[in-house]
Write a structure and sequence with these properties.
Elements (H helix, E strand, L loop, with lengths): L1 E5 L2 E2 L4 H23 L2 H8 L3 H10 L2 H13 L7 H22 L1 H22 L11 H14 L4 E5 L3 E5 H17 L1 H4 L5 H21 L6 E2 L21 H4 L1
Antiparallel strand pairs: 1-3, 2-5, 3-4
Length: 251
């Protein structure tokens, strides 16, 4: 299923999520310019993450190589390989990032996003530390957003296409998405080659852990809520539906 939106009602505007989407598209248009100029090989060699280069950089203890290895981890999060690649990633981010940004707060959300991307990179390197295949894309960080989302709103409704319009719950859709990544790791023919499935797994697990820790610290929040069928407010809840932290309604 291609998720398009959820049914959360949030009180804050998703400035950070939209900014991340804008940065990814700006990077993509710059990629197109680089490719048209004929210098794509040098660009991708420098700014995509290659596990073998990262491992070699830290094994050599060369500060310059280590610096560029770290830079490549972050720049790779904003690069994509095709129109379908970037559009697919940004659709997922738009659907699930809005609620996560509201629940965590903007600064923590940025840290959460980047840490998920780093965890995704670490597991991808672990899966094949000698690989010189360029890794790029926001899917590892976005997988962390998916993992965090299921911690906060398992009963949120997700609306999407498959290819006809379909509706399901986050508790069904997100675990199945995660299972698909495992199946693709066990049998690459299931999902096809060229996809960093270990990065998806690493990002998702990191998002689960970070969101779980935050929920222990702040179990209740009314910044987002799942609306009731009649949109009727209950005592002590924000107008329009359920608090996202309500143990009776949320979980």
């Amino acid at each position: 299923m291609i998720p398009l939106r959820d049914n959360l009602r949030c009180k804050v505007f998703p400035y950070v999520t939209l900014s991340i989407i804008a940065l990814n598209f700006l990077a993509w248009f710059y990629e197109l310019m680089v490719q048209s100029s004929g210098s794509a090989d040098a660009f991708f060699s420098t700014y995509t993450m290659m596990p073998g280069k990262v491992v070699h950089a830290f094994a050599s203890a060369d500060p310059h190589l280590m610096l560029w290895a770290v830079i490549s981890v972050f720049t790779a999060m904003f690069l994509h390989g095709s129109w379908m690649h970037i559009i697919g990633n940004m659709v997922f981010l738009f659907c699930f990032g809005r609620g996560m940004e509201a629940r965590l707060g903007r600064t923590r959300y940025v840290a959460f996003y980047l840490l998920s991307g780093i965890a995704a990179t670490v597991l991808q390197i672990w899966s094949d530390p000698t690989s010189m295949v360029p890794n790029l894309g926001a899917s590892g960080a976005i997988a962390g957003v998916l993992g965090g989302y299921i911690v906060f709103w398992p009963k949120a409704r997700i609306f999407g296409l498959m290819p006809l319009p379909v509706e399901t719950w986050a508790i069904f859709f997100l675990p199945w998405w995660f299972v698909e990544q495992f199946l693709s790791v066990l049998s690459p023919q299931v999902g096809g080659g060229g996809v960093a499935y270990f990065a998806h797994i690493g990002g998702f697990l990191c998002g689960l852990v970070l969101a779980g820790l935050w929920r222990l610290y702040q179990p209740v929040s009314d910044v987002c809520y799942i609306p009731t069928n009649c949109e009727c407010p209950s005592p002590g809840q924000p107008e329009g539906g359920e608090s996202d932290g309500s143990e009776d309604e949320q979980n």
